[in-house]
Design a protein that fits this description.
- Belongs to the ELIP/psbS family.
- Helix content is about 60%, strand content about 0%.
- With about 180 residues, the chain is mainly α.
- The protein has a domain at about 85-140 and about 160-175.
- Helix 5 (about 85-105) packs antiparallel against helix 6 (about 110-140).
- The longest helix has 29 residues, at about 110-140.
- It starts with a helix and ends in a 5-residue tail after the last helix.
- The model has no long low-confidence stretch (mean pLDDT about 80).
Length: about 180
């Protein structure tokens, strides 16, 4: 309604009439709209003035409120929670580097590493990294709040995902070929 009134006012003013040379052309553009002629003395005036509140004015904007992070055990370890993929990624990164180092130093493939005492190292590392990853999450500290520069939370997640794929590819390649990768 307001748009229609403004449009009618604009088209009917004497200034608009002088700008528009062919009034029938304007009417054909707005054929469904009735454009009445207003008298020259009719005018509408709109004034807008912002009022400033002295209390709300500050030199620096206030920081956005921190999102509340749930510290419940079920929420932290939920399927879409912050802990499972992060912990699995950290374990995969550590496992991939360790598997490559042992393969280069001793020449053992992944399966022989696991069968020759690798399970105890895996369990110990898993417990240590899981506890170290869960402590900050239970305190309400998110990994996103501590990530800056190149070492961001997203980069860690992607590196963890690639390490998980790398471990699976390493195991599959060594199983199919029957020998070490390197």
């Amino acid at each position: 309604m307001a748009t229609s009134t403004v449009m009618q006012t604009v088209l009917a003013t004497p200034a608009a009439s002088s700008l528009v040379k062919n009034r029938s052309r304007v009417s054909s553009l707005f054929s469904a709209t009735y454009v009445p002629r207003l008298r020259g003395s009719a005018s509408k005036r709109v004034q807008c003035k912002a009022e400033l509140d002295d209390q709300n004015i500050s030199a620096e904007p206030s920081p956005p409120p921190k999102p509340k992070v749930s510290t419940k055990f079920a929420d932290v370890l939920a399927f879409s929670g912050p802990a499972p993929e992060r912990i699995n990624g950290r374990l995969a990164m550590t496992g991939f580097v360790a598997a490559m180092a042992v393969e280069l130093s001793k020449g053992q493939d992944l399966f022989s590493q696991i069968s020759n005492g690798g399970v105890s190292w895996f369990v110990g590392t898993s417990i240590l990294l899981s506890v170290a990853s869960l402590i900050p999450l239970f305190k309400g500290v998110s990994a996103e709040s501590k990530s800056e520069g190149v070492m961001t939370s997203d980069a860690e997640m992607w590196n963890g995902r690639f390490a998980m794929l790398g471990l699976v590819a390493l195991a599959f390649t060594e199983f199919v070929s029957g020998r070490t990768l390197l």
